[in-house]
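Long-time lurker, first post. I've been practising inverse folding by hand and with some scripts of my own, and I keep getting stuck on stretches where the structure tokens seem ambiguous. Below is the full token string for one chain I'm working on. Before anyone asks, I'm not after the true native sequence, just a reasonable design that respects the backbone. If someone could post their per-position residues I'd love to compare against what I wrote down in my notebook.
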């Protein structure tokens, strides 16, 4: 069992986690902002990918077990919006998406979310 394969969750659990992040129940807003800043030359903050889309900060994370399951969480902190996707396949984060390269816009679902809510 590992952190990537031993955690069992639901979209509702992740929505509660997201709400706790948003209302400061898990981390102070100052701490969360530090976690969601780029750490040097990498496209990551502390545990999250961080990038800009049309000037808007986007923080996101993905999980992938080849030929088994995948997950994607995309947050627009400035708008208070979050997309949470879970799949019983590697279709959210596996090929043809190269999310480990650090750009969530390579993912069809995330790109549509961003176009709809950011423009």
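-- Answer (accepted) --
I ran through it position by position. Result:
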């Amino acid at each position: 069992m590992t952190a990537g394969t031993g955690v069992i969750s639901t979209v509702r659990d992740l929505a509660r986690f997201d709400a706790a992040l948003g209302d400061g129940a898990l981390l102070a807003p100052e701490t969360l902002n530090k976690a969601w800043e780029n750490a040097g030359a990498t496209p990551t903050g502390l545990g999250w990918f961080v990038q800009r889309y049309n000037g808007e900060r986007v923080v996101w994370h993905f999980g992938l077990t080849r030929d088994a399951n995948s997950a994607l969480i995309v947050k627009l902190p400035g708008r208070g919006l979050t997309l949470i996707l879970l799949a019983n396949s590697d279709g959210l984060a596996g090929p043809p998406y190269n999310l480990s390269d650090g750009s969530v816009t390579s993912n069809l679902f995330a790109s549509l979310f961003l176009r709809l809510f950011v423009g």
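A couple of notes from the structure itself: Strands lie at 49-53, 56-65, 69-76, 81-87. The helical segments are 11-22, 29-35, 108-117. Happy to go over any region you disagree with.
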